[in-house]
């Protein structure tokens, strides 16, 4: 679980693996980038995000992939928009 700096439970690890795979498949990015994007978004918190048992279950792994890649305010669900991914180093 150490690759994901923001979780502390095995169930959360499994969900993160599904999110990672969704990003790799959907956006054709490398595994390191997918993990890095999740760490960038959620790693800034001082406690694990999975202390709230339902947090990672608020969205499907596919939806989380889009939110992480494009941003929650990007209207990623609107397929007619020309979307720009969040910058990644």
Fraction in helix:
40-55%
Rg calculated over all Cα atoms: 13 Å
Order of helices and strands: HHH
Uncertain ranges: none
Number of strands: 0
Distance between the termini: 23 Å
Class based on secondary structure composition and strand pairing: mainly alpha
Strand content: under 5%
Question: In DSSP terms, counting alpha (H) and pi (I) runs of 4 or more, how many helices?
Answer: 3
* Overall geometric form: globular
Q: Kindly report the average pLDDT value.
A: 90
The biggest beta sheet is recorded as: none
Account of the protein in words:
With 89 residues, the protein is an all-alpha fold. The chain has a domain of 61 residues. 45% of the residues lie in helices and 0% in strands. The chain has three helices and no strands. Helix 1 crosses helix 2 and helix 1 crosses helix 3. It is globular, with a radius of gyration of 13 Å. The chain starts with 9 loop residues before the first helix and ends in a 19-residue tail after the last helix.
